[in-house]
Amino acid sequence: MRTRAGIVLLVAMAVTPPAVFADYRDSFAEGIKAFDRQNWEDVRRFMSEAIAQQSVEGGRVRIYGTRFRTYIPYFYLGIAHYNLGNCEAALEAWKKSDGQGVIAGESAEYGQMKQLVEDCRSRIVVPKPKPDIPIPVPKKIETPPPETPKIDSAQFDAAFRRASLAINSATKTYERLKKIRTDQEARSILDSDRSLSTAWSEAESLLTRAQSVLEESRKGADTTDLQQLAEAEKLASDASRRFDKFSVDLTARLDAMRDESTRGLKEREQALERRRLELSKLQTAVRDARIAAGRTEGLRNPTSEIPRLNGSLEELLSHSRTLDANTPIEELVRTRLQIEQLTVSLNRAVDQLPPDESSPRKAAVPVSLLAAARSYFQGDYRTTVSILEPESFDTNRSRAYAELFLAAARYALYVLDGERDEDLRKRARDHVANVKRLDSTIVPDREEFSPRFVAFFSEAS
To answer: What is the DSSP letter of 183?
Structure first.
């Protein structure tokens, strides 16, 4: 059975596609980073390593953060060879990428590759073998002055078409890049990078010269005109090559800038979310602290520690009211921890009081009322009602606070239900009336209860 399982494992490994091995992704990602830095030797090396590990193009590879690129290593290998001056190797790499078909789905890279292929092909000249020609014996003869050789119109037209095509191709690239240069991000890069601005000006100047030379050649049809047409074609091809390099460099800078902007935005959003979460924790700590302070009301013989803790806690609660979403998160955390520590100490001090007549524990806030308040402030309104509904309390003040939380919880349930259950609203009004009957000094704190409930309480009163 073990031998059979081993065979099955070997078969599974044999049919597993190369994409499951992740090493090529690391090489490809390093190659893209080198591409951004225009370190063409490193691009060539890393893309060659990626191809050795995974020669089939396709799929998306994470470069870093949220930046992904389609896996087309042959394309980038060709770019590296092109910039290293090896057009033959560049053409071979691009041929393999084009043959796999993946790059055809990447419009920008595919268009760039086609332009650079044309440029490379125009540079590679296949040498023609020289025929063996016998060396003539020079003769001293009298010859008339040489006349300017004439060429036929077909030869001139062919040269003119080649020059025109080269200029038209360069002009299309120029017009496309002009639109990109109007982008605000592109303008900021060009304003800060003198080398890019210079590269653009030089390419633009070459195209202008090519157009002028082509126009000059229209005046005649002799050998000089053919030379002008060849010069115009060469100038236009050079302009195209420089425009293409400018496009590659600018695109790399734009991608890097946008990736950096995306990372910065995400970090700001994460920081804001952390601050919001900490504010919520602080609000919970403040509510717990006020409940703890309420437990000390009515104590006739408290220890000296309780007033001291109450005073310190009140100072922190007063300070917490000055904090908001713009407060540094370190200050929010520090204040919350101090409040939580004092709250624990105050609750412990109250719990340690002896339950005798000189310090009656009944004067402190009942545990069930504390639990109901915590449930309410955590948004669990049904639990608040279920805790307080069956309870009976010893003092009118405790009963009044219970009625206050019942009114707030039932009014919240009424609002959350779409304000459709009039019975909930009526029962909330009844609880408000009970609060006024039991202790008219009790009103909902505007910092702890919602503005709508505070208004409802006031109207119901």
So the answer is: S
The answer to whether residue 434 scores a pLDDT higher than 90 is yes
**Closest C-alpha to 86, from 123, 52, 51, 136:** 123
Q: Are residues 79 and 192 in the same domain?
A: yes
Identify whether residues 259 and 382 lie together within a single domain. no
Q: Which 3 state secondary structure label does DSSP give 308?
A: helix
What percent of the chain clears pLDDT 90, i.e. is strictly above it? 42
Contact yes or no for 212/165 (Cβ under 8 A): no
Range of the domain at 394: 367-461
Read off the pLDDT of residues 82-105 as tens digits, 9 standing for 90 and up. 999 999 999 999 999 999 999 998
Q: How many angstroms separate the Cα of 157 from the Cα of each of 119, 163, 231, 299?
A: 22, 10, 15, 110
CA gap 50, 311 in Å, rounded: 68
Q: What is the pLDDT of residue 453?
A: 94
As a whole number of angstroms, the distance between CA 293 and CA 288 comes to: 9
Q: How many CB atoms lie within 10 A of CB 303?
A: 14
pLDDT digits (tens, 9 = 90+) for 345-404: 988 888 788 765 334 444 467 888 888 998 898 889 999 999 998 888 888 898 999 999
Beta-bridge mates of residue 3: none
Q: Which two tokens stand for residue 193?
A: 């990078």
**Run of H or E residues at 45:** helix 40-53
**Segment holding 176, helix H or strand E:** helix 153-181
Number of folded domains in the chain?
2
DSSP-derived 3-state class of residue 67: strand
* Tokens of residue 131, six digits: 């025929």
Percent helix, strand, coil in the chain (nearest 5)?
Answer: 70, 0, 25
| Helix (H/G/I), strand (E/B), else coil: 134 | coil
Angle, in degrees to the nearest 10, between helices 223-294 and 367-377: 160
